[in-house]
């Protein structure tokens, strides 16, 4: 498995392109500009592999900019947790709130179920429901590779904001401590924003986790 990361749009949102055994998956198609779109398309088309799935960790505006164009270009549908459908359907409203433009995302072709597995190539991921930043946030766990793609749940030195629609700090902290921390200190964390980190580094140095654990 190989993972390529791209940082797109004015919100500096990470988009992940994962390849395994001739199959590709995009997690959070955050590309917005024409240049960003061409960059991702070129990367996908340059691989000796085919795009099989487009997965969303959640449906906030900065993670869905490229849904429509990517889905149309490759004729591959998007997948998201059921609780994020409202945000997805109101993508244009979200865009208007932030003063940006968005081509309306298509309806999801499948709903991501917590406790299910995502398979492509030689890879199998477990799906964790990690709400708090948004109601249907999910994290993708590759236990064999020792990594988790966490969306906007946990960052290097920070956590996801909870002042958006149906955000909740207590819920987010439960997601982190009950779902992510038990993965183990060595687990790599690929976040929706910022650099890669590890569970152990955040558990021992992230002020939000240290402060919460001391309460």
Annotation keywords:
single chain, 215 residues, alpha/beta, Metallo-beta-lactamase, Chain A, six-stranded mixed β-sheet, 14 strands, 29% strand
CATH topology: Metallo-beta-lactamase, Chain A
Radius of gyration, taken over Cα atoms and rounded to an integer in Å? 16 Å
| Total domain modules | 1
- Please tell me the overall pLDDT: 94
Assigned CATH superfamily:
Ribonuclease Z/Hydroxyacylglutathione hydrolase-like
For the largest beta-sheet, the strand count, sense and barrel status come to: 6 strands, mixed
Order of helices and strands: EEEHEHHEHHEEEEEEEHEEHH
What's the N-to-C terminus distance? 40 Å
Shape descriptor: globular
CATH top level class name: Alpha Beta
- Which residue ranges are poorly predicted, with pLDDT under 50 across at least 5 consecutive positions? none
The tally of beta strands, per DSSP, is 14
The portion of residues forming beta strands comes to 25-35%
User: Which structural class do the helices and strands define?
Assistant: alpha/beta
Q: If helices are DSSP runs of H or I spanning 4 or more residues, what is the number of helices?
A: 8
Sheet with most strands: strand arrangement: 1-2-3-4-5-6
Description:
The chain has 215 residues and is of the alpha/beta class. The protein has one domain (2-213): Metallo-beta-lactamase, Chain A. It has helices at residues 34-46, 61-64, 67-74, 85-89, 91-98, 169-180, 199-205, 207-213, and strands at 2-8, 13-20, 23-27, 50-55, 78-80, 110-111, 117-120, 123-129, 138-142, 147-151, 154-155, 158-159, 188-191, 197-198. The strands form three sheets. It has a six-stranded mixed sheet, covered by helices on one side. It has a six-stranded mixed sheet with strand order 7-8-9-10-13-14. The radius of gyration is 16 Å and the shape is globular. The mean pLDDT is 94.
């Amino acid at each position: 498995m190989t993972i390529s990361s791209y940082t797109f749009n004015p919100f500096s949102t990470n988009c992940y392109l994962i390849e395994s055994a001739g199959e590709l998956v995009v997690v959070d198609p955050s590309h917005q500009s024409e240049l960003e779109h061409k960059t991702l398309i070129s990367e996908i088309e340059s691989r000796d592999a085919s795009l099989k799935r487009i997965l969303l960790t959640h449906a906030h505006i900065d993670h869905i900019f490229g849904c429509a164009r990517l889905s149309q270009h490759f004729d591959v549908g998007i997948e998201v947790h059921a609780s994020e459908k409202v945000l997805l359907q109101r993508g244009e409203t979200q865009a208007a709130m932030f003063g940006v433009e968005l081509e309306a995302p298509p309806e999801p072709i499948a709903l991501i179920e917590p406790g299910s597995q995502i398979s492509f190539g030689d890879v199998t991921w477990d799906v964790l429901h990690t709400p708090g930043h948004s109601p249907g946030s999910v994290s993708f766990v590759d236990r064999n590779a020792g990594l988790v793609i966490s969306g906007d749940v946990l960052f290097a030195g920070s956590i996801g904001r909870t002042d958006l629609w149906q955000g909740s700090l207590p819920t987010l902290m439960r997601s982190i401590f009950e779902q992510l921390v038990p993965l183990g200190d060595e687990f790599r964390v690929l976040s929706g924003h910022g650099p890669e980190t590890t569970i152990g580094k955040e558990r021992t140095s992230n002020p939000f986790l240290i402060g919460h654990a001391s309460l």
